[in-house]
Specification:
It contains 8 helices and 6 strands; from the N terminus they run E-H-E-H-H-H-E-E-H-H-H-H-E-E. It is of the alpha+beta class.
């Protein structure tokens, strides 16, 4: 929606419309998907995360379970989104080990980055989690990194080039 609730794009005004890691931030995903489908003539593409899939990622699962639980309350299942899109194709989108943007899983193989306030500032899960929850979680991560515990427990990850952190690309041809 544009300013004042007015959508500035006309019906069928674009060949394709996309939503990138945003649908779960809407209280009514039907409205967001409906707007995408209204403006697109040929295709709608949505990048989202699969609730339950993404929480297998070590950071939310082991260090931020409270934040992951909150994020899960807002999540929209991949199946529901595919249905809203009229039956979309779904593909996994692995996160490469050297990804550098603010995506939560971007530093899955470089855990020390999560201790950097600048990295956390660019990630909604951190930004929406209060300091009283973050402080002990980050202290545990810092301790695990200092002691080598994190590396011992995650030895199998260190040689991988990508990780399925639950991101899914949904593509609907209209």
């Amino acid at each position: 929606m544009g300013v004042g609730g007015v959508d500035p794009l006309a019906d069928d005004s674009a060949d394709a419309a996309t939503a990138l890691l945003t649908v779960h931030h809407r209280s009514e995903p039907e409205a967001g998907v409906g707007a995408l489908m209204r403006i697109a003539r040929q295709r709608v593409v949505v990048l989202t995360f699969g609730p339950g899939i993404d929480h297998r990622f070590w950071l939310p699962a082991e260090y931020l379970p409270e934040a992951a639980a909150f994020d899960g309350t807002r999540a929209v299942t991949v199946e529901r989104l595919a249905g809203l899109l009229g039956g979309a194709r779904v593909e996994a989108v692995p996160v490469p080990h050297d990804r550098a943007d603010g995506l939560l899983a971007a530093f899955w193989r470089r855990p020390g980055a999560y201790l950097d306030p600048a990295v956390r500032a660019g990630t909604p899960l951190f930004a929406q989690t209060g300091d009283e929850v973050l402080r002990p979680c980050l202290a545990r991560l810092s301790d695990d990194l200092s002691s080598g515990r994190w590396h011992r427990r995650r030895a199998g990850l260190l040689g991988r080039t990508s990780l399925d952190a639950g991101h899914r690309l949904l593509m609907a041809d209209l």
